[in-house]
Each structure stands twice: as structure tokens, then as C-alpha cells.
């Protein structure tokens, strides 16, 4: 299993959790904590549910961004740099002759016997 596949699985899991956390929150600020009374005299720590959901949203978002950046750095085979490098190798190959001409030795006609 490649690193990209691991990061992709992590992105899917984190995105599912992020959807759940956002859906539980109330857009008007009440959210899950208002379901259990919503007053100032909360019992059992339900008063802090809104803070927990907000912090978990930020943490999951940061994890998602980190996983996306890591997955992007491990993608191979689709890079345009590789295509550019292959193109430059082909150009260099076309410039260099496959069969270089054999060097000729100059003949000197003045070396005739006198």
C-alpha cells in the first residue's frame, strides 16, 4: 500500500468526522448544548459541548489540510516536471547525431618526393 493511499484513506475518514461534527452544531450557536438545557447551570459538563465541537472542528480542519498537503507531495506519475524533463531529453537526443562522422585526416600534397 502506497503512502498516497494511506493519506487518501485518512482524508476520507477525517472528512466524514468533520461532516458529523459540523452537522451536530447549531448554526445559531445553540447546538448540542442547548438540547440538554442550555442554561448557565449545566450539570455534567454539557455546558462545554459547544466549545468541544468548535475545537474539534478546527482540529479536524487542520488535520485535513495537513493530510491533503502530504498526499499532494506523494503523488507521482502526473507531474508536469517529468514531462518537461522527458521533452528536454528528446530535444538533446535530436541535436546529437547518432552516427558521428568519421574524422578525416588531412592529406598534404606538398610532401611529395623531390
Automatic annotation (TrEMBL):
Ranges where the record places region Disordered: 87-114
Keyword Cell membrane recorded: yes
Sorted UniProt keywords: Cell membrane, Membrane, Protein transport, Translocation, Transmembrane, Transmembrane helix, Transport
Subcellular location field: Cell membrane
Bias-annotated ranges (Low complexity): 96-114
Transmembrane annotation, as ranges: 6-24, 57-75
Bilayer topology annotation: Multi-pass membrane protein
Domain of life assignment: Bacteria
One cellular component term from this protein's GO annotations in UniProt: plasma membrane
UniProt cross-references to InterPro entries, sorted A to Z: SecG
Matches recorded under Pfam families: SecG (PF03840)
GO terms assigned for molecular function: protein-transporting ATPase activity
GO terms for biological process, alphabetical: intracellular protein transmembrane transport; protein secretion; protein transport by the Sec complex
Family listed: Belongs to the SecG family.
UniProt cross-references to NCBIfam families, sorted A to Z: secG (TIGR00810)
Task of the protein: Involved in protein export. Participates in an early event of protein translocation.
PANTHER family: PROTEIN-EXPORT MEMBRANE PROTEIN SECG (PTHR34182)
Protein name, entry field: Protein-export membrane protein SecG
